[in-house]
Amino acid sequence: xxxxxxxxxxxxxxxxxxxxxxxxxxxxxxxxxxxxxxxxxxxxxxxxxxxxxxxxxxxxxxxxxxxxxxxxxxxxxxxxxxxxxxxxxxxxxxxxxxxxxxxxxxxxxxxxxxxxxxxxxxxxxxxxxxxxxxxxxxxxxxxxxxxxxxxxxxxxxxxxxxxxxxxxxxxxxxxxxxxxxxxxxxxxxxxxxxxxx
Length: 197
Known about the structure:
The protein has 5 helices and 7 strands, in the order H-E-E-E-E-H-E-E-E-H-H-H. Strands 1, 2, 3, 4, 5, 6 and 7 form a 7-stranded mixed sheet that branches.
């Protein structure tokens, strides 16, 4: 696997080139379940997942190699069966014929809309709508290995590929204490196990 992860780069604070605003062909490349997160807006705990998309038409040069850029909802979307939810929107876009689990999203093509948002005099690219890929549009394959980080079956190799920002969110989940994820993280920390990125 390539040592550079554009998702990790997108979570950092240094200046980077924005993804152009507008529609892009994309593929789902990462699924990271981040547990139950408390929503101040709704006053409830919600199971959330970060869904990351790779954009073949937009690349960044790293060590002389062009790599597809990533974009996601960094704070996750609610794992909801509500027909109007983002999760249902993503499912209809990525698996129009239906799927049995989140894992079915991985590698699937779709169309995403990227918008630019300016706050405190800083402009960032943000993921907007996700819709089915238009007929006849060929989406190049992923140039990195896709993965799914499952809350109930966490994989330590995958954990070490998750950006620190997202790891911190997972540790703040209300159901983190006593979870399989906490057990795995404690084991990794006690043994000093890590994977070179």
